[in-house]
Amino acid sequence: MPQKGRLLIVDDNEELLFAFQLFLKSHFESIDTIKNPNVLVSKLREKEYDVILLDMNFKAGINSGNEGLYWLKQILDFDKNACVVFITAYGDIELAVRAMKEGAVDFVQKSWDEKHILSTLLAAYQLRCSKMEIKSLKSKQKRLNQEINKNKSFVIGKSARMKEVFRTVDKVAATDANVLITGENGTGKEVVAREVHLRSTRSDQIFVHVDLGAITESLFESELFGHKKGAFTDAKEDRMGRFELASGGTLFLDEIGNVPLHLQTKLLTVIQRKEVIPVGGSTPVQIDVRIVAATNCNLHKMVADGLFREDLLYRINTISLELPSLKERSEDIAELSQFYLEKFTKQYAKESMQMNKSAIVKLEKHAWPGNIRELQHIIEKTVILNDSAKLNAEDIMIGESLKKTEVMPDSFNLIENERVLIKKAIQFTGGNMSMAAKELGINRSTLYDKIKKYDL
Ligand SMILES: Nc1ncnc2c1ncn2[C@@H]1O[C@H](COP(=O)(O)OP(=O)(O)OP(=O)(O)O)[C@@H](O)[C@H]1O
């Protein structure tokens, strides 16, 4: 069998050290021993050990077993992934149990046979390998998140209303307080939610976005809380839910006003208990998430109308952030337009373009019911349709709505017309599913069903 793992044995009994070393040497890559625990931490600084076999009592002290526990704490303070196995005398079981509660991975009795001791140490070595693998995966995940988040901060806005929003974001970001962001569609709720995450202490962890308006009721629990293999027909394997996935980071619950009452209760329980039970499972999984929720609904009114749970509202709105509509921050329109002009000229490989005063005034005068998303869409269309470097008011085509174009359809086939209409509504709203659904007079989940049906 190949020798793997570095073992350190700490015991003041020289005979025992010798005996252990002798029978274990063919099983471990290296075995070091120390008699005096006072040099233990300096030894750990010199070399990394996979398993530490530690005596429970040292002659120098009183035989209470506390010396072992004291040294265990020193080891774990130095390396929280250390795998410590205690050497106990016959009858020390209670003490051994206490040691395991305090972080030891196992214990061996001096009286046990070699086979038994060896299998305990090899199991401890396997555990160490798993712990190191998890440590490396976590650090990779951290690096990846840092990469992903690197250029994500770009919230444009110098208007008084936006400055106020940024001030609150700064204050709240460092805390773990739950945040509720309200505002019309396309005002930047998701962008601001990401900003809260990026400015928080969780920024090197994951940001998980869940569009609650797009999850069908039947999948709600399994999507959010996960499921166990066999929990339902399609559950071919265990699957982690979004809450668990976001653990350590931020969970963005978008369109929270769209959650039906009976599912709000489930959401509340999870947020309150900070644990989820996957569908088909029975063991709760601890979660540590910061919740940022968003909606374009008036949740206080919904509470008054009996459509939203008051206790859930108070859980999620520790801090409320109300985003102004684009009309209310028209001072930002010129800068936003310039930002998107640069973005789209680059994207469509066009020469750079500039808007003259009349073009900007036209943009500033528009009501922008679709807010920044609509502005973005208009600028994209302008870039595609124009070739001149200077843009005048006439070059900016705003205000053409689906409703205004009354054309004869190519066919009277209802299904085909439904498909075309849905496609147009999505294009018109720049991919904003809430607005598209509103334009079509259906709800979001029906829209998602139809998108799937027509493969759009
Ligand atoms: N301050 C900003 N600066 C630049 N772009 C922005 C800003 N705020 C929003 N946007 C852009 O506007 C679009 C809509 O933003 P976002 O999706 O965050 O809005 P929302 O309020 O969450 O919309 P919905 O309610 O429809 O989900 C996105 O493409 C986003 O990048």
UniProtKB/TrEMBL annotation:
InterPro entries recorded: AAA+_ATPase, AAA_lid_NorR, CheY-like_superfamily, Homeodomain-like_sf, HTH_Fis, P-loop_NTPase, Sig_transdc_resp-reg_receiver, Sigma_54_int
Residue positions, PTM 4-aspartylphosphate: D55
GO molecular function: ATP binding; sequence-specific DNA binding
Pfam families cross-referenced by the UniProt entry: AAA_lid_14, HTH_8, Response_reg, Sigma54_activat
Origin: domain of life: Bacteria
Domain Response regulatory: 6-125
GO BP terms in the entry: phosphorelay signal transduction system; regulation of DNA-templated transcription
SMART domains linked to this entry: AAA (SM00382), REC (SM00448)
SUPFAM superfamilies (alphabetical): CheY-like, Homeodomain-like, P-loop containing nucleoside triphosphate hydrolases
Sigma-54 factor interaction domain segment(s): 155-384
Protein name per UniProt: DNA-binding NtrC family response regulator
